[in-house]
Amino acid sequence: MKHFCLPIFLLFLSSSLLAQNDKIAELETEIQKYLFKQPDSAKIYLFKLLEYSQERDDTLVALTYSKLGITYSQLAIYDSSSYYFKKGIALADESPTLKADLYANSAINYRNYANYPQSLAALKQAMEIYQEYGDRSGEGVVYGEMASNYNYMGEKEKAITNLKRAIEIFKEIGDERLYILQQKLANTYYNTGNYEFAVDLYEQVLPRFAEDKAPSYYLTLLSYAESLVELGNIKEGEKRLLEAKEGLTEKKNLEYMYVAWGKLGNIYKATNRPVLAKEAYSESFNYLQKSQSPRFLQIASDYLSFLNAQKDYNTAIRVIERVKNSTNNFELAMNAQDKLSFLLNARETYRNTKQFEKSLNLFDRIDYLKDSMQSAIDRVKIKQLEESYQNKFQRDKNIALQNSNEMLKRYNTKQRTITILSWLLTALILILSILIFMYNKKRLALQKVAVANLEKANSVLKENQELEQELLAEKENNLADKERELVAISLEVADIQKQIKDIIQSSDKNEVSEEFAERIVSTLNQLNYWKHFKTKFVEVHPEFGYNLEQMFPNLTEDDIAFCSLLKLQLSTEEITSLMGITKEKVAATKHRIKAKMHLQDNDEDFEKLMREL
């Protein structure tokens, strides 16, 4: 009986393992079907496959975690993506190249939420492993991803240098993924404003990305569409952006879907469709703020520019306050350019709403960002690198064309000589045309940059002058208000003092005793309201007395004090009331001071001196 049970048990165990293996194979088939195409569906099958982790090798489990990390990254859920990449790295010790792949994928995820230092650190770890095991393809991938990092960071020279290394490696080993590096190169030209060449590259690689319509295809469409718009092909750009928006919605990548929505707002703004533009900007702004996306500040800047153009300053102020409250000192940005663009638009809002102090406060931060960006970019070197790659790319195209021509010549030997001469002449003319075109283009570009810089400098100088004039006018208004306040208070106090003395003088001894009257007058005299007036006057016009004394050293302190009343343009009656003297005394004092200044016969010059000093 025991001998009979053992075969049955082994048969049952074998059947169970076979059924389990069949289930795993079925799940892997489904994962392969949806991975990179429908991340939401792929995620479900990946989690089901993880239920069999105890029965699978650590390396296979690590690979599953890697795919799960990629899936969450496509869904723009970066925290979860980072978590699963780390779990995969911890299990991949037995497969170094898989571990390097995990580090590289993790670096892409870090870059997606603008954590460039950690992204570069992960790429460095991946590179060390690839180089140790001689994986040239992996090295090319790392150089390509480094280029993307530096591209987003605004360090275009480093981006192009790393792309050059990646392209050389992929060409050397014949890696079929060369089109991915061409897409990254197109992104670099797009970010440096070379839209014409960027479009040329995008149109070569888009058919390859379109084969499986993965998220990367729709992300490439975003930059391609913007390049088309910059070149004036707005209709095609809008069509491509709508395609990207719909595709990213289907792939559940809501972050980039709302980025596309915001970029559509730019097109609606440019084509005078303000209602659609405001809806697009508002929807994109609200979602990206809520999701803490590093692409939030770019959309916020575009939204603020639109609101300023529409003179909707109330909404613009609210947008600025929301950005301040949610960006932690503008950290929700892909790079310094996004911060600078937003601050420039915010300054425009403050200027238009006459919040000049806030506008001035932004100048230092704007200048700092401009200086830091300028110091990080050597534009001449970048331009030279761009042109060298454009020429190299053109030469490659010419070589391909020439090879095709050689094939035709073998089938048409009778016209061989004519064909060779014609193509040599064509190549010569083409090269000369390209050289002349590039030389003129470069010269015109430098001239445009010089003119643009001069215009910007003049614009900034004009803005500063306008702000200074506005602040000066405000200061003069405040000074006039203080003068009026000083005169009113001083006259009021003097009038009260005079009324009290008049009451005492008009009262008989039965109403107020002579001793009590003398005590009141003595107390009023001790209060020395005149001294209080002089102290307040110095606060309003601190340099008046000093300048008058320097011009006329023979004037006494009382003379200068009397002149301060004339500076306030008080009438004789007001001076009489304030000083408690007669009109004749006022006229005599004025005449005496004019004599000391040698202006006794020139009332006009004397009054002008009092006003303008």
TrEMBL record:
SMART domains: TPR (SM00028)
Parts forming coiled coils: 450-499
The protein, known as: Tetratricopeptide repeat protein
Compartments it resides in: Cytoplasm
Family: Belongs to the Rap family.
Pfam families documented for this protein: TPR_12 (PF13424), TPR_7 (PF13176)
Keywords: Coiled coil, Cytoplasm, Membrane, Repeat, Signal, TPR repeat, Transmembrane, Transmembrane helix
Superkingdom of origin: Bacteria
Signal peptide range: 1-19
Cellular component annotations (GO), alphabetically ordered: cytoplasm
